[in-house]
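Entry for magnesium ion complex. Fields follow.
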Amino acid sequence: MQGKNKPDFTTLLWDVDGTLLDFDYSMRGALQKCFCTVGKPLTEEMIRRYSQINDGYWKRLERGEVSKEELLVGRFRDFFSEYGLEEMDVEAFRKEYQTGLGQIYAYRDDALTVVKSLRGHFRQYVVTNGVTATQKSKLKLSGLSEVMDGVFISEAVGHAKPSKVFFDYCLEQLEEKDRDRILIIGDSMTSDILGGIQAGIRTCWYNPQERPCGYTYNADYEISVLQQVYEVLGIYTGKADPSCVYV
Ligand SMILES: [Mg+2]
């Protein structure tokens, strides 16, 4: 049931952190686990501050200003230094943190139901920036990897979103060669949407907090809950429960 003005999409590229899975939940859980191990208190304010430092490093990585290694270590070094925790073992902490990130997960908006309902009707792939072992573990435990037709992780590709090299590599592996029929869905304007635009595919910004865009470029579509992807794909469910699609 494609709508009249909708491109005939065949292939969906999903971002993971902040889109299919709740990254903040994983981050919070991993930090709490690590601080518990070293027997130090972790406050809400510290979690917020770590999140800001982490986001800052990821933005700098997207702009090519720091390497992945600098990000993985630097975010904790800066964080510990702000709170007078210089004695903390950054290497041990970051290892435990990465393990925790790969084990603790929560879906956003019933994401598993959404991607399961689309399986067999669209080819679906994960396109994610992150540490391979962490992302693979989280995708496996969450059941997402078995629903997907493929998984592309920046560390394994050697380039990260929004780099055109990353997208060109992924797009080369896809059966669909018409870029108008490929849609990326992600929560980041700077990695998912900019990367999608540069790669010449269609873009859908997942914006659950309905923030203003604030960039000179814009996504083709914007959704605030994942179930709205059905409208973007031209699917009319006619029912409140999106799991009923295609049933
Ligand atoms: Mg994301």
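NOTE: The mean pLDDT is 92.
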